[in-house]
Amino acid sequence: MSRLARTAGPGLRAGALILVAGLLGGWDGTVVRTVAWRAVGFFPSDLGRQVRLHHRRYDAGIRAGLALPPSWRVGPPGNLEKALRSQALRCRDGLLRPEPLADLVEQLGTLAVLVCDANDPLAVSDADPREPRYAAPWLRYGRSVAGRVRLVYYGQDPALLDRGDLDRFVRDTLARSSRLYPFVGEEFFRTGTLRSWREIDDRSVAFGVTGVALSHAMTDLANLAAWVWVEGGGARPTPLPTPTGHLGPTVTVVLGGGLPERNRPKSGEPALPPARLRIPR
Question: What predicted TM-score, i.e. pTM, was given to this entire model?
């Protein structure tokens, strides 16, 4: 234990622990912005239009979230659980007052940061004593693979949207991230010594953890945005189609582009032969 830790009071020691924990989170601004904007595609349609209309306010909210005190962005001894719940309620209450929609959009940007933090395994736990050695490499690794990870949307959360159980939703999010936490350290020390993040390829457990965590972050933010919208009097979004008999979550891949034929010239001979049917007089 350092001299500062031995001589400081309990409050100062706790504050130092929170500060250190705040430096060990894995998602940086680039990753957070990627998730935050991908999630907008799964917002209620009217709310999504407002976010795109006030896109600068959404980005301002993200910047505000990234600048929050470290104690708000990590789990115990930090206050991430409380901060996430409070920010979700802040968004809902703003819609009920009502406040200008541009203000709501900015608050949603801050909510996006806290949702990403809650889905960052290194932000919700510090059980591994080796974590300070791989925390910074994990940050760089997350940034390096963010463009290659395929985000998926896991569907609506019935307990949140049907029963409005926000507390359960927040607790389950943090618990899910805690279950992913051990895999990160195992990957970095797979060879018995600390590996460089550059040695971890896309077939690794770390790549899978990153994809699952960021996909859940995108899905959680979409669900919280829908909850805010419904609690504030908006229409509940129509669930995406689910295959008949499917009992698990809805998995929707975020596709890029569209039909490859969309940009082809619209002139020339028709692709199908002329119709041979004769219409009766």
Answer: 0.80
